[in-house]
Specification:
The structure is a homodimer of 349-residue chains. Chain A is 29% helix and 23% strand. Chain A has 349 residues and is α/β, with parallel strands linked by helices.
Chain lengths: 349, 349
Amino acid sequence: MRATVIHGERDIRLDEVPDPVLALPTDAIVRVVAACVCGSDLWPYRGVTPTHEPRRIGHEFVGIVEEVGGAVTAVKPRDFVIAPFYHCDFSCANCRNGVSTSCLHGGWWGATDESGHFVDGAQGEFVRVPNADGTLVATPSLPDAALVPSLLTLADVMGTGHHAAVSAGVTPGSTVAVVGDGAVGLCAVIAAKRLGAARVIAMSRHPERQALALEFGATDIVEERGDEGIARIQELTDGIGADYVLECVGTKESMDQAIRSTRPGGMVGYVGAPNGGPELPVRPLFNRNVGVNGGVAPVRNYIDELLPEVLAGVIEPGRVFDVELPLSEVAEAYAAMDERRATKVLLRP
Amino acid sequence: MRATVIHGERDIRLDEVPDPVLALPTDAIVRVVAACVCGSDLWPYRGVTPTHEPRRIGHEFVGIVEEVGGAVTAVKPRDFVIAPFYHCDFSCANCRNGVSTSCLHGGWWGATDESGHFVDGAQGEFVRVPNADGTLVATPSLPDAALVPSLLTLADVMGTGHHAAVSAGVTPGSTVAVVGDGAVGLCAVIAAKRLGAARVIAMSRHPERQALALEFGATDIVEERGDEGIARIQELTDGIGADYVLECVGTKESMDQAIRSTRPGGMVGYVGAPNGGPELPVRPLFNRNVGVNGGVAPVRNYIDELLPEVLAGVIEPGRVFDVELPLSEVAEAYAAMDERRATKVLLRP
């Protein structure tokens, strides 16, 4: 089959690789219907994290089950399934505690699982899925093609934006600010709105993303950053700050923006992967009782809650995809996101 | 009147100072019945924070109202009152949001208030109390003398331990670990227990404090620290970690202990004043979805909830006081706490 392999900095290729086969009775083989490129895929693409040898890449996909092992009962061939950006048994103590990203028997796409067998990356034609019963969620029936992009966001960005809002503890009637207008930030706007926020302030400088944020439920746009951005948030909140701030970037600057935009006693929900840092400054947190909660989003735990709303068209997170390409043009997909010509690229094998 | 003045490192004196007078119609003058020495008073005592010129010190007291300004309606002369470790109007947006330590018109004992008038420290005979209606809480009647120590803890340590538990979000049936066996840590044990924790693990090496922790509701004692302490907590929690960890010390080591003792998806409630640091390490928090919440405890917001239980004898946080001295021996009170001969010293003017 063909699958995406990163060979080094800015060197993305669609290579011929072995077809996956069932390795364990708990496995499934899934034919990928749609995959995509994540902001975090750009770290190795840009060389920020080094690529020492060619490796498979991609961790978001939806697809059709081709084959299942003898112990699999929750999904069957021909099911349309959503896979979170990791695999998990969905039954261990951490999974039951709502944190399936810390599954005691889980792991990551494009790496070996705990049995030592290789697990395919998502930007390919087929994927061997370990712990298929825990990892995969089947839709009740074959979904309309138009729903595929929104279903794909449940693999990562919609669940991650939701995690920011859940981690912050967004309450009905509250004021929420969202730092970051990438796919996750835009999904965080949807999440804050559906959790009942009365006011959602989107921090964005891009006209198209501002427009989408407003359609997703943002009530205010703040274009300023740094001290000026904080001053604007203060101005919009009677000088107090936002109740909850959703940090969806992962840089020192964005975290600082988030912490200082939060009112005393408020909470920062953060999901922007901090690439090697930054440390959190404890004094501004402690003195003002601003909490910080979040992390690598356990999106598998959220699919059951979000899927019905996607199927009913109540939320349309798939609108964050602004470019669609065949898998054969995966290198261009990376380039488009790297050069900010695209917010998020959907790939069709 | 006589009041405690810190003149420099390990130089605590009871000096003659001017009697306080009403400066504003919202003021009250309170005669101090009992005060105490706080762990944070030891920072300047030890010279960790420098004392550039002699200044008044002490921030925990209960007393009897002597006199009130014309605008004061909530307390009256002869009332027995509890003062939090700061003054506040208890009506601004931050106070209403539960964070009276961030009161827009509040301030600290032993410093000037927003009108520029000096506010006495608590380790003295009398205190001018700004915003008396917001700051002070009167007991329904003159309390029995035996209740005074527990009432005094509502000024700081009991409310602070409670804040650690509330900030962590302790839930019924949960497993809570408490880092720190000082007065605040011991009060955090009480708080975790009354919020319904099924298991409270107290980390302590002192036999007397262990005994008190067990009487306060601790179910397990862990003497080990660092990696060994974390291993013990893992052992006690089926290898998962504690749901909530209450950090009541404020050092880099104690915060590290707290973060690494928390299970994935759990929360650290922290109230140990971080003296100039440390920064929080974001990676271990992010990767395991461990949140951090807390800060300088808004104890005024908790008095209404905790006072009835103190008056009824349901909780006895006053037992953290293990030494009682007359105010004239305030220097010895500091020395006893500095040399760890006392957990917490109560002072009687």
